[in-house]
Amino acid sequence: MLDTFITSRVRRKIVVVYAKYPDFKTHVRGLAKLIKEDPGNIQRELKKLEKVGFLLSEKQGNTKVYCTNKHFLIFKDLQSIVLKSQRAAQKRQRL
Fold it and tell me: With CB atoms counted within 10 Å of each terminal CB, which end of the chain scores lower, N or C?
């Protein structure tokens, strides 16, 4: 269901991870391993999500680490949508 609203597969995976686990922090390569996507595509999507305010980043040495901006205007709404969407998908799988 979430794929209807967020059409980019990579962006959707990133939003799900950060909405589901708001205390999660990682760098591009760590996220690439987790969601099994190309680091180049992930970096592009992370920059877009940071630009709109959904993610924050900080430099740790030579690495840029991303985390959820819990103060993002629609964060709670987005988190709720992600969680409901995943519950609905689990229910469909059980049937």
Answer: C
Burial of residue 65, with CB atoms counted within 10 A of its CB: 0-12 exposed, 13-18 middle, 19 or more buried: middle
CATH of the domain at 75: 1.10.10.10
95 domain-assigned: no
Decide if 16 contacts 82 (C-beta within 8 A): yes
What CA–CA distance (Å, rounded) separates 16 from 8?
12
Q: What is d(CA 11, CA 56) in angstroms, rounded to the nearest whole number?
A: 15
What is the number of domains present in the chain? 1
Domain range for 36 is 2-88
Give me the residue label for tokens 């959904």.
54
Residue 42 has which token pair? Answer: 């992930």
What's the pTM value of the predicted model, to 2 decimals?
0.88
